[in-house]
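During the no-cost extension, the postdoctoral fellow (Dr. R.K.) reprocessed legacy sequence entries with the updated structure-token encoder. One reprocessed record is reproduced below for audit purposes.
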Amino acid sequence: MAEARRRLSPDDRRNELLALGAEVFGQRPYDEVRIDEIAERAGVSRALMYHYFPDKRAFFAAVVRAEGERLFEATNTPAVPGESLFDQVRAGVLAYLHYDEQHPHGAWAAYMSMARVDPVLRGIEDIDNDRQANRIIDRVTAGIDGLDGKVERDLRAAVYGWLAFTFEMCRQRLVDTSLDADFIADLCAHTLMDALGRVPGIPATLADALAPQRR
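Re-encoded structure tokens follow.
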């Protein structure tokens, strides 16, 4: 006799399926994963699987979106009074690396999505980058009034470039776990300080906050 399916609330069932999807997509290429396999491993019917997700593409997009939400929360390190911008950025990068350590399959599922030319997945990536960039810009410009529009544009462009760099450094550590987390955190934090410090016309208060950490 087949084992009775566990009773879960709709939200709990959906979250369970997403967690399983992160595990499977993080271990194998997208094209090798079947919806039937996910349903079987979760102990649910194919019909219930499609009740939550209309097709594999939608399921994969939901997995990537869920991982992005978890990562965004995990890297929301609190600002400590008196802490330098460098230390704040470094703490955020370490949080990113620790998240990857604790959720390697989910991280790989998210990394895989970035290489796909799918407008839905690209849209998820854009949303995630926008949120991370906004959070960094808010931290960097805290207490600065009337920031010049051109300066803000250039700061934002530098932050987006830095996010791509940091994303790849963290991916490299998943590829090779012997890479030192402190080295990556220091490298990424120094890189952002240097990039922002080179933006023409930044306010003196921001330049002073960045200068001690630039090399």
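The chain has one domain: 57-210. Residues 149-175 form the longest helix (27 residues). The remaining legacy entries will be reprocessed before the final report is submitted.
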